[in-house]
Amino acid sequence: MDKNNALDAFAALSQPTRLDVFRLLIKAGEPGMSAGEISSTLDVRQNTMSANLSILSRAGLIRSTREGRSIRYFADMDGMRGLLAFLMEDCCGGQPELCQPVINELACSC
Known about the structure:
Layout: H1 3-13, H2 16-28, E1 33-34, H3 35-42, H4 46-58, E2 62-67, E3 70-75, H5 77-88, H6 96-106
Antiparallel strand pairs: 1-3, 2-3
Helix pairs in contact: 1-4, 2-4, 3-4
């Protein structure tokens, strides 16, 4: 991920609803959620949610697939990994042991 892509991702996540959507989709995991489920869970109107989902998608943080008349959304784990890797690219000045606590905190405990 380059600096411009990272800035796009940060801009997308800088709005409260979009941050909530991204975190919700990370929590949902592999099954993802339909746009209606996301709207209902977060109590956001569907047209507003559609705009937010579009911004997150363009930023490379979520992906979608069509299922008949509905669209299912998923956190784009490659996009998230890219953003985290960009942030930690030069972590700890060549002393990886200093980064280990951060890496441990990021690791899924499931």
